[in-house]
User: What shape does this take?
Amino acid sequence: IFRNFISGFPKESDMFVATGPVKLKLPEGSRGVLLKNLYLSCDPYMRILMTPKNEGSGEVFAPYAPGSPVSGFGVAKVLDSGHPDFKKGDIVWGITKWEEYSVISAPEILFKIQHTDVPLSYYTGILALPGLTAYAGFYELCSPKKGEYVYVSAAAGAVGQLVGQFAKLMGCYVVGSAGSKEKVDLLKSKFRFDEAFNYKEEHDLDAALKRYFPEGIDIYFENVGGKMLDAVLLNMRDHGRIAVCGMISQYNAEKPEGVCNLMNVVYKRVRMQGFNVFDHFQQYAKFLETVIPYIKEGKIAYVEDIAEGLESGASALVGLFNGRNIGKQVVVVARE
Ligand code: NDP
Assistant: This one.
């Protein structure tokens, strides 16, 4: 349950677990679905919903209501349905609530899972929002070409690990940054990035980027914003592209950090474009056709960070903002 609106970094105590009786039946005449939740996704945008007014993201999701369950993406089993698109026994992914059982009265953002021969938890990450974000963000917004120099921030996370691997499959030179040695090792060994560095150990981000990109960056996949973006702007090549996916370093800031080096967009004729994955859902079927074979053929590695039980949900979500998660952060409510 979401306790109340916050400012600054989220804390575990901003959420609490409540127990109560559940009715495992839909109300008479309901057009909704009754779900048994299996896997819940921890996503950075959820922090934005913890403030009463969120410009932009509010167009997709309203802020959380104090005293109500946290909502978010997840994987669930349909126990009862009054909706023509769903029937008992279906496995679905989409918007649900952080509960054991949920009634979703208007299941507009709920998709039936057709391919169940992969781990179902993948439908919180690689086969859901973060996967489609990486796919559309990289292939569409970055206009990548073989041999180009690609830089990914928050590279060991849900989106970043996939962007880097898509770029490698395209034949690009790929460098990622992350916040610990363990993550840096993972980027180089498991995800096969060409290079990786711990941004927390670099006093001069501009110098670090010059070390890894002596000839400059063609593509920057932006996940963090702030100082990192400023340093990247100094290192872009002519006609470079920046896909602005998110800016997690700014989500808890009372006052967003200024960016000083924006004139480089002009000097270097850089194309910088923000995007929202919800504008790319029409690509979802094509995306699955591409990515499921990549998973099965071992062309893409995927790492999840699994937290067990609803009671671990708050700390798992808060962990996104101090980098505790290694890979996609998932909360398991039940496995079947
Ligand atoms: P991750 O799995 O990458 O988790 C967040 C990671 O961000 C943490 O593990 C941490 O890793 C890093 N981080 C946290 N605080 C900071 C900070 N102050 N500075 C630098 N890094 C920080 O999350 P996702 O992959 O789910 O999301 C990545 C980005 O993509 C986010 O910005 C998110 O908002 C955005 N997004 C955008 C979408 C869109 O439609 N545009 C859709 C989905 C996601 P580390 O140890 O490296 O610090």
Q: What stands out?
A: The chain has a mean pLDDT of 96. Residues 12-125+304-332 form a domain with the Quinone Oxidoreductase; Chain A, domain 1 fold (CATH 3.90.180.10). The first strand starts at residue 33 and ends at 41. The chain is about 25% helix and 25% strand.
